[in-house]
Design a protein that fits this description.
heterodimer; A: mainly alpha; MetI-like fold; 75% helix; B: 439 residues; alpha/beta; D-Maltodextrin-Binding Protein, domain 2; four-stranded mixed β-sheet; globular
Chain lengths: 301, 439
């Protein structure tokens, strides 16, 4: 016997709902992805082949914007500064993060509190971190200068000197993002099987031998993932530089993100900026692919 | 059968749940929204960048505007982000603002993009003799005088902005260091400043902004003008690396740096203001933002010891003029109100009140009132009459300033090579403008 409530349900199914429902369910997500990811990407690519004047497209220029990039001294400088910044920051973060993870692998009183404290920098808003570091570095009223003057020294020049400002930026990044490395590597270390380590201990292997022959080789895939993630992220560093140095002094800390931002929004060279970001995107994509291939090789070995 | 009924149940519940959620969200959102407030007057949304020069306007004129029937919403942003934010708003037609209080070098960029209303056509009288001529001239695009960029050579100048708050560089100095009044020349600034340092009255003869880009160019500009430099010829060829320009740059990165705080390379207006208001520096060329604080004991340690004067000269005593200038975007949601507000605000009566409140007005009559609210105001008029020039009227000024600012900042860091830095910058500017189709 069919109840009155069953009939409309049947009609709903009979109308092709079974077939259409998965697509209907996918539609909102798909629309959002198309709207916020695919279309902007396509529009950005299209913009990169156009010349803009006073904020409006005036001509199609094909790949001219891409060609121009490689003779633009400011772009090349920004790319070089970015590569140096990423290489230095990520290397230091990887080493420090690994060391901290190894240390925090042990169980002792207060270790949970220590692990929590160590990840705090990562959860602070980057702009706030930059403001705090500015208060530390400022030569007129910064903490370092106050400390130096209290000890009879003079003003500490960080932001007014190219090399110091660059190192200061790296220090900021290391302070903020070493916790991410630490967290990923600690999780990796905790997931390693115990048996090989116990066997090594029984065989009388020392701490260094265990690290060199077991821990490091077994951690290489995790380390590679962590480095790839941080590298991609570090290429996009913007907030800290924007607040701390705006790319100065001179062009010493002018990362590609700052140069791209200025080009697009301050100088209104929309097409050229689009070409710049597409190029940087391709560079990062290339790095990511290389890293993935490296990972596969490591896995295979 | 069990599977089928569970499946039907799931779909139905999902659809019902989704609909329910949508309805509930709509209901909650509607209930949660504040009731539309009763209109308090003619709404005008003003966008401005944070600057001390606007304080009198905010404190004294906005309340009067409200009494006159305007409902003013004043939205402030940090200087570094306003240009891009407003340009995007105007170009996309987002309609977030009725009025932008622009920095005057941005007028060509907005003008060339054709995103601002023609205020002349809306009844704003640009020919009113009471305007400070050099200020109202900055509101026209293309400019009425001087070289024009390609594409606008034959275009009729249109009044797209009106001066809002006057501002220009003047000298602020310590009257206990420069006891004979305002120093007349740069050499006097340095020599007497050194005496002040030796006497323990100050720590540095001068202070200025050294940060790359706009800050350092702004600080160097009056030195450059006073040495007799010119920026472009009438074909947009950079000529700032002339012998006069190079001498000014060498003096700036050499002598001036040696007599400024050691960290001046990283100084922006905050540090610059702190040095003069905190009693450390002897003299400074600055816009009115910090100068307006000179008599307020809550904001300076040397109240009563700071006086104002015309900028020092080497050949001429010319300052840079940089005013707040108002434009109405074509996408303004309350366009008529904004234009009515501008007419009210730029009337001689309200300009007199602005002068009483302590801001530099934009109408000449307001300079002559019995009691201007700040003793800087008559000095500003003296400077205007002595000479004050705006920055070159090109939509590409931001890029030009960036290129020059980087090179000057590098030379400042080194403490030498100012002249050579201008040669490098001139080549970069020329190349850039060539790419942009100037020649």
């Amino acid at each position: 016997m069919k109840s009155a409530t069953q009939a409309p349900q049947y009609r709903l199914q009979g109308a092709g709902l079974d077939l259409a429902l998965p697509y209907l369910m996918l539609a909102p997500g798909l629309t959002i992805v198309l709207g916020v990811l695919v279309y902007p990407l396509w529009d950005g690519l299209r913009a990169s082949t156009r010349a803009y004047r006073y904020g409006s497209p005036v001509a199609d220029v094909g790949i001219q914007n891409y060609v121009r990039l490689w003779s633009d001294a400011q772009f090349l400088n920004a790319l070089w500064v970015t590569v140096k910044f990423v290489a230095l920051s990520v290397s230091v973060e990887a080493v420090l993060g690994f060391a901290l993870a190894l240390f925090c692998l042990r169980e002792f009183r207060g270790i949970r509190l220590l692990r929590t404290v160590l990840i705090i920098p990562m959860v602070i808003t980057p702009v706030v971190v930059a403001i705090v570091f500015r208060l530390i570095y400022a030569s007129d009223a910064g903490m370092l200068t106050a400390l130096s003057e209290a000890m009879g020294g003079g003003a500490v020049q960080i932001l007014g000197n190219s090399l110091n400002a660059f190192i200061g930026l790296v220090v900021l990044d290391v302070w903020e993002w070493t916790p991410l490395m630490f967290l990923i590597l600690l999780a990796g270390l905790q997931s390693l099987p115990h048996e090989p380590f116990e066997a090594a201990r029984v065989d009388g292997a020392g701490a260094w031998r265990v690290f060199a022959d077991l821990t490091f080789p077994m951690m290489r895939p995790v380390l590679a993932v962590a480095i790839v993630l941080r590298t991609i992220d570090a290429f996009g560093t913007f907030d800290q530089v924007f607040v701390l140095t705006r790319g100065g002094p001179g062009e010493a800390t002018r990362l590609i993100s700052i140069y791209g931002y200025d080009t697009a929004f301050k100088f209104q060279q929309t097409g050229y900026a689009a070409a710049l970001f597409v190029t940087v995107g391709l560079v990062v994509l290339g790095l990511a692919f290389s890293a993935i291939r490296l990972l596969r090789r490591i896995d295979a070995s | 059968m069990t599977r089928s009924s569970r499946s039907r149940l799931t779909r139905r519940s999902v659809i019902k749940g989704g609909l329910g959620l949508a309805l509930a969200t709509t209901a909650l959102t509607t209930l949660g929204l504040p009731m539309p407030a009763k209109a308090a007057g003619k709404k005008v949304i003003i966008g401005a960048f944070a600057d001390g020069g606007l304080t009198p306007f905010k404190q004294k004129i906005i309340p009067q505007a409200k009494e006159a029937g305007f409902d003013i919403e004043f939205l402030e942003d940090e200087y570094g982000v306003t240009l891009e934010k407003w340009f995007a708003d105007a170009q996309s037609g987002a309609g977030q603002y009725d009025l932008y209080l622009l920095d005057d070098p941005w007028v060509p960029q907005f003008g060339a993009a054709n995103v601002l209303e023609d205020l002349g056509a809306e009844g704003v009288d640009g020919a009113d003799k009471d305007w400070i001529v050099s200020m109202i001239d900055m509101g026209y695009w293309p400019p009425q005088e001087g070289p024009r960029v390609k594409g606008f050579e034959g275009a009729k100048p249109t009044l797209i902005c009106v001066p809002f708050v006057g501002d220009l560089q003047t000298l602020t100095y310590r009257n206990d260091v420069y006891t004979d009044g305002a120093p007349k020349t740069w050499d006097e600034v340095i020599a007497k400043g050194k005496e002040g340092v030796a006497a323990g009255k100050i720590k540095y003869p001068v202070v200025f902004r050294g940060v790359s880009g706009n800050p350092i160019v702004t600080s160097w500009y009056p030195v450059f003008l006073s040495f007799g430099g010119s920026f472009f010829d009438d074909k947009w060829n950079p000529i700032f690396n002339s012998p006069e320009g190079k001498a000014s740059a060498d003096f700036f990165v050499g002598t001036m740096k040696q007599n400024a705080p050691s960290g001046v390379v990283e100084f922006d207006s905050d540090q610059e203001g702190a040095a003069i208001l905190g009693g450390d520096a002897g003299a400074i060329i600055q816009y009115s933002g910090n100068a307006l604080k000179a008599d307020d004991p809550a904001q300076t340690k040397v109240a009563g010891k700071l006086d104002f004067g015309v900028v020092p000269k080497q050949e001429k005593a010319i300052a840079q003029m940089g005013i707040f200038i108002a434009g109405v975007p074509k996408s303004a949601p309350n366009k008529a109100n904004a234009i009515e507000f501008l007419k009210w605000y730029t009337s001689a009566d309200i300009q007199a009140k602005l002068s009483e409140a302590g801001s530099i007005p934009v109408k000449r009559s307001a300079f002559g009132i019995a009691k201007p609210g700040n003793r800087l105001i008559p000095i500003a008029l003296q400077q205007l009459d002595a000479g004050a020039l705006p920055r070159p009227r090109t939509p590409d000024w931001a890029k030009v300033e960036e290129l020059l600012g980087i090179e000057l900042n590098k030379a400042l860091q080194a403490g030498s090579g100012g002249g050579a830095s201008l040669d490098t910058a001139a080549k970069q500017v020329k190349d850039y403008l060539a790419t942009a189709g100037y020649y």
